[in-house]
Amino acid sequence: MVYPNKFEGFMIESQDKWSDFSKKEFDPKPFEDYDIDIQVEACGVCGSDVHTITGGWGPCNLPLCVGHEIVGKAIKVGDKVSTVKVGDRVGVGAQIWACLKCKNCKADNENYCPHQVDTYNAPYPDGTLSQGGYSSHVRAHEYFTFPIPENIASEVAAPMLCAGITTYSPLVRAKIGAGKKVAVVGIGGLGHFGVMWANALGAETYAISHTPNKEADAKKMGAKEFICSKDKDWAKPWAFTFDLILNCSDMTSEFNLPEYMSTLAVNGTFHHCGMPDKPLPQLKVPDFVPGGYAMSANHIGSRPEILSMLKLASDKGIKTWVEKIDISEKGCKEAVERVYKNDVHYRFSLVGFDKAFSRQ
């Protein structure tokens, strides 16, 4: 590898062999005035990585390096960069570029920019394909590069940059705080963040899961009560209770959604954080009528929300429940296969980048 003209990453070459990674060089986008080169030291393994490489979300560009929960050291900054200096520890999430000129961008909704570029598997305006963080380096726009608080370890911070913000953003946009009741459905990689954020924001927080053995963990994360959705008539005692349901499950296709919605307070919202491969169960308008329910979803979060999330985590001592895996062909394979099988205790972070890549 000859940095800065070439980066190196663990890439897949076929969705039929989606867990077979090999180390390859790739071309980063041309370096511009607002760009930052980051030497990666940790990268979370997100469900999105698995949805992409397996074809669950459709065909992808190949060869592809995934990973969009990235923390590392800034080693080069563009002439117009003002918020990061060489040597700073910074992070990058699931979005790496936007026009920053449109109506959405100017309203702190750059995560809904029609011209946005995802951190991997997306073309830049010049045609360069974005490649992710299972790599030696990433090149990111300053606006999508975030200082990491000193008291948050890199492997802990990394999963916050996608899973964390995906659950934090809908909570703050719904003005969740003291006096509100929030239920988090699905206590996994996304849901464990949902419980911790809702509790930290002051809401009365409940965990809903079909897995009874998640109860102890959920209560350690801050849930006041644990509700097992495998129990018969589980929803009846909770009718008209929750201001917001944060659905973090990957199994929504199997839900009786009207049953879940029946636990919402009048005008409450059932909000989807995850993006499963399978479609939602069929619903009819009358299913929304009993409480004037709403349904919504989100795409990650904005820069101000990410900065406030990291500050909250720093101030409150919130830590990702994470297992570390050394990055390598074998390590990447193990990580994505275990995520695919749901064999993960909340989140993985790939580490050991200095050993895997030559540093120039």
From TrEMBL:
<dbReference type="GO" id="GO:0008106">
    <property type="term" value="F:alcohol dehydrogenase (NADP+) activity"/>
</dbReference>
<dbReference type="InterPro" id="IPR013149">
    <property type="entry name" value="ADH-like_C"/>
</dbReference>
<keyword id="KW-0597">Phosphoprotein</keyword>
<comment type="subunit">
    <text>Homodimer.</text>
</comment>
<protein>
    <recommendedName>
        <fullName>alcohol dehydrogenase (NADP(+))</fullName>
        <ecNumber>1.1.1.2</ecNumber>
    </recommendedName>
</protein>
<dbReference type="InterPro" id="IPR047109">
    <property type="entry name" value="CAD-like"/>
</dbReference>
<dbReference type="GO" id="GO:0008270">
    <property type="term" value="F:zinc ion binding"/>
</dbReference>
<dbReference type="InterPro" id="IPR002328">
    <property type="entry name" value="ADH_Zn_CS"/>
</dbReference>
<keyword id="KW-0560">Oxidoreductase</keyword>
<keyword id="KW-0479">Metal-binding</keyword>
<keyword id="KW-0862">Zinc</keyword>
<feature type="domain" description="Alcohol dehydrogenase-like C-terminal">
    <location>
        <begin position="189"/>
        <end position="313"/>
    </location>
</feature>
<dbReference type="GO" id="GO:0006066">
    <property type="term" value="P:alcohol metabolic process"/>
</dbReference>
<keyword id="KW-0521">NADP</keyword>
<dbReference type="InterPro" id="IPR013154">
    <property type="entry name" value="ADH-like_N"/>
</dbReference>
<dbReference type="InterPro" id="IPR036291">
    <property type="entry name" value="NAD(P)-bd_dom_sf"/>
</dbReference>
<feature type="domain" description="Alcohol dehydrogenase-like N-terminal">
    <location>
        <begin position="35"/>
        <end position="150"/>
    </location>
</feature>
<dbReference type="Pfam" id="PF00107">
    <property type="entry name" value="ADH_zinc_N"/>
</dbReference>
<comment type="similarity">
    <text>Belongs to the zinc-containing alcohol dehydrogenase family.</text>
</comment>
<dbReference type="InterPro" id="IPR011032">
    <property type="entry name" value="GroES-like_sf"/>
</dbReference>
<dbReference type="Pfam" id="PF08240">
    <property type="entry name" value="ADH_N"/>
</dbReference>
